[in-house]
Amino acid sequence: MSTPPSAPHSIGEFVRGYEEEGRLRGFRCPSCGLVTATWGLACSRCGRAGLEEAELAKTGRVVAFTVLTVPGDEFLNDAPYAYAVVELDGGGRITGWIPGVGSESELSIGERVQFRPSYKPGVQFERVTSP
Amino acid sequence: MREAWVVGAASNRFGKMAESAREAATRVSLEAIRSAGLEPKDIGHTFVANCFGIAEHQAHVGPLINNGLGIPGVPSVTLESACSSSSAALHEAFVHVAGGFTDAALVVGAERLSHLDTLAATSYFAIAADYAFETKNGATFPGLYATLASAYRAAYRTTPEMFGAIAIKNHANGARNPHAHFQKELTMATYLASPIIASPLRLYDCCPFSDGAAAIVVAAKEFMRSPTSEPLVIRASARAGAVTDMHDRPDLLGLPSSRAAAEAAFRQARLTPSEIDFLEVHDCFTIAEALALEDLGFFPRGTAARESAEGTTARDGRIPVNPSGGLKAKGHPVSATGASQVVEIFEQMNGLARGREVPKAETALAHNVGATGGSCSVHIFTRR
After folding, report:
1. Burial environment of residue A100 by CB neighbours within 10 A (0 to 12, 13 to 18, 19 or more)
2. Which of A9, B35, B137, B360 could be disulfide-bonded to A122 (CB atoms 3.0-4.6 Å)?
3. What's the gap in Å between the CA of B143 and the closest CA on chain A?
4. Is B219 strand, coil or helix?
5. A34: closest chain B residue by CA
6. How far apart are the first and last CA of chain B?
7. What CATH number has the domain spanning A59-127?
């Protein structure tokens, strides 16, 4: 008998987590340990179906980023802003936007950021100012 | 499996089309069929690419193209693989012909987006990313490739001039291609002065939104009839997929699907990169050309942008890349792009690429990426 794929989250629940609950939901693969913030029924690295729910950390560091001056329609009033790939503390990568970054000299690869629940859909980060 | 050949090819001029994608697709299809010395009734299957047909309020365009060609009874299907849609269609044509399911197949890709404004066009392009996990978080298409460019620059300490050299080279080639959207040269000063779209990408790092249509005819060797041109033998037709969201890839210094499709294609063709005379690669942004050349095995990692600045990829360089002008200068009518790469190879191998000939055109490779590499096609062609 094959293992039934479990679907503990829907994409809608991920989005509600960002917007209403201030949570970053994700999955952990019980076989290979991959942590991901992207919805799916099986592991994108090893193929194992039956992922465990995971609560992802709200802090991490910037792996790569861009500062967008020409946005898409849903960010029309937000440009310029940074869009970054973020490696979360404790594992898992996610993308998010960082408002108020006007040029690339204002952010660096490796810089620490934290998740900030936002008034609009999507994942928003802010820079962690050093103490 | 039998040999499948590209026996005919045609493209319109990319840029702004006054006519619909449906009309342009039908027109280039007839031209491609005629260039093969065939008639529409010889076509057994039609494979169509028209990703954003919905922007023209038109889906199910295959039967309309076939109707316009006077072959309403021929089966058709529209394939969607983002920017690699028409090379995906070519792969299906190859499978059908090589597998004996049809003797001649039409592959046609067409796109029209110029009736939309930049904001709407940017938004259409962005839905080919992961809408829930990239686009909603602020990504645009240039933004995603810019993120790759930022990782590349950090890893290899490249300069803007290295990427400028890629754009300048492709514009120099496009200036000599009558199908190209931009038929004008670009200077380094203009490149450097162009505004940042998504750092570090400037306007002139980005391909334009283009309208356009391109068609090719794939036929079994046995089916060739009084050809007016030399056919291309399809030595390899390979496709690959990869983790779609780039944040879930451990490595941002390349596209895994490019590497996988290239390995499969070289294996199929029993060839190595050193045996390829010239390339058409997917340069939706200048960074994409650098990554492609490394992923395909033509340059060691981190060196392709540097090599481009030294002229290695110019038409008279060691390995000419994008003699058509590439997506950068020829333009990027999403669903026509993959087919148009084959049109360029067909013209180069038939001595029709006047004014932009590569020194040797016996063996060529075409590389076409879907979005940020969730899908990729690599085809290898030789002269008969």
Report:
1. exposed
2. B137
3. 6
4. strand
5. B248
6. 17
7. 2.40.50
Measured in angstroms, the CA of B373 and the nearest CA of chain A are apart by 15
At B67, list the tokens.
Answer: 């109707």
CATH fold group of domain B4-116+209-223 = Peroxisomal Thiolase; Chain A, domain 1 (3.40.47)
CA distance A32 to chain B (A): 14
Which positions in chain A touch B200 (Cβ < 8 Å)? 66, 104
What would you report as the CA-atom Rg of chain B, rounded to the nearest whole angstrom? 19
The C-alpha atoms of residue A22 and residue A15 are separated, in whole angstroms, by 10
Q: Is the peptide bond before A4 cis (omega within 30 degrees of 0)?
A: no
Find the residue in A nearest to B127 (Cα): A72
What are the beta bridge partners of residue A106? none
Write out residues in chain B with pLDDT < 70, as ranges: 226-227
Other CB atoms within 10 Å distance of the CB of residue B21: 30
Please tell me the pTM assigned to this model. Answer: 0.96
Tell me, what's the pLDDT at A120?
79
User: Could you give the ipTM of this predicted complex?
Assistant: 0.93
**Which chain B residues are within 8 Å of A95, Cβ to Cβ?**
133-134, 137-139, 245, 247
Kindly identify which residue of chain B lies nearest to residue A75, measuring between CA atoms.
B138
Of B335, B136, B370, residue with least CA distance to B244: B370
Partners of B206 on chain A (C-beta within 8 Å) are: none
Q: Over the stretch B111-159, which tens digit does the pLDDT of each residue have?
A: 999 898 888 887 787 778 899 899 999 999 999 999 999 999 999 999 9
